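Input record (Table S2, row 493):
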Amino acid sequence: MWRDIIDLGRWQGEIWDRRKGNEVYLKFLTIISVKDDYGAQSGYVGIFEDLTDLKYKEESIDKLQNYDILTALPKISLMKKLISEAIEKNLTKCNLKMYLISLSIDNYNDIKDSLGLRKMDDLIMEAVKRLEKSMDKKIVLSRTDKDEFMIFISNFKESELKKFINNVLNNINRPVIIDKESVYLKVTMGICTFFKGERDLNSIIEKANMARTYALQEQCSYIFYKEGLREKFIRKIKMDNALRNVLKNKEIYLNYQPQVDLKTNKIIGAEALLRWKSYEFGRVSPENFIPIAEKNGAIIPIGQWVLEEALKKANAWKKQYFENFCIAVNISPIQFKNTNMFETIKKALEKYDLSGESLEIEITEGVLIDNIKDIKIQLGKIKKLGVKIAMDDFGTGYSSLSYLRKFNFDKVKIDREFVKDYPEGEDGTIAKIIINLSQSLGLKVIAEGVETEEQIKFLRNNFCDQIQGYYYSPPLSDWEFEKLLRKNIMEEI
Ligand code: C2E
Ligand code: MG
Ligand code: MG
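Output record (C2E complex):
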């Protein structure tokens, strides 16, 4: 200050000063040196402005920039600063992992539309309270978007992290009572684990966000980011797009796997199994692509195509080989939920001049869980057409006996799980129980995934009606299946 005044004749700047009442305050001071007529120093003039108000305003601006108005939690910009500081501090500490969790409230918009923005604010405050309840001091919580939060954790062991995640889920999953109604929040988390050496915060945030988006797609509560997740994610998005064009590009076809009567050893029909040979991805297993097609709705036109293609073949084989030929077609729960399957099946049977007896539909328990009343009506009408209904993969889900009875199934398919390891890893008890139980309810039983002679013997001894599996034949192309049919009939003669 003095140097400026002596050299330049003036100084300007902010200084802290004390009022008479001892209160410290900020002022903007200008000091000008005054000279007399001969150029000699005669005094100084000081002009100051009290900056208290301005400082207060600046602080407010800083608050608005760095803190969320509703929750007073740090925003992403401040969160980044806090994380950087924590990483720096941590440098000298022990070698523990750090975690960044990206958390979203998935049903934010649904709840907001029904409750209105005001109530939604209350709900967010309650969510924050519950998140804070799940935490201790080592954690920094920030609100990064209206429905998104970031949680930074340092100095946690993996077991502590798991406990923390469970706490969050338990606390969040309890209903919130608003206007005497229970409202449930649904959250998904993506977790990125990192070490103190990693300083590219944007990449850490991106990884946590990506893991969360992936968890959302997979319908998991949380997923840890792993190497290769990005590639997996991109592949899924590409597959999602490709699946919308499989019909147009003629990339799908059917395989047929014979179903054999255990008493006569004769083929009674076949299960139509969907295959995708993609120009971009090569052959993709239905176990990988059907869940994607179910999510994006492509399963509806694809399923319609499967039904028609299978019935077209059934018509031909029935005419050419034997009258009782029956084709089994898998129907996805999505087709049941979003279309009128009764009308679809009725029209397809008419188109290919078939009676309902030539068709069996395979459904899993997933179909029966929601909207039971409507599904029951649809299935009842489908059965009236003569179409048989088989419960696929029995034993893997709820395996509900009441479903078997209530929905009037004709057949139960024992899942491969209970057959494949017999006799080494599986003593057959579950298969035996399923056979006895189904037959006592008057249902036919078919065992899936039968691969060995020993398994056939076991199933025959336990009066299983039919089998399907590699022992007789893997799924075949239409012409290979026809060859097998011809051979089977010749043997009969
Ligand atoms: P699923 O309906 O339980 O079909 C049986 C699966 O077991 C088929 O797999 C078949 O190839 C396989 N398999 C049959 N015998 C054996 C065996 O002896 N050993 C072994 N290891 N496997 C055997 P795939 O063709 O990969 O189909 C998997 C699942 O994809 C099917 O299970 C079904 O849930 C679904 N799927 C297939 N086609 C369609 C379709 O057209 N529509 C719908 N919605 N789902 C389909
Ligand atoms: Mg099936
Ligand atoms: Mg099955």
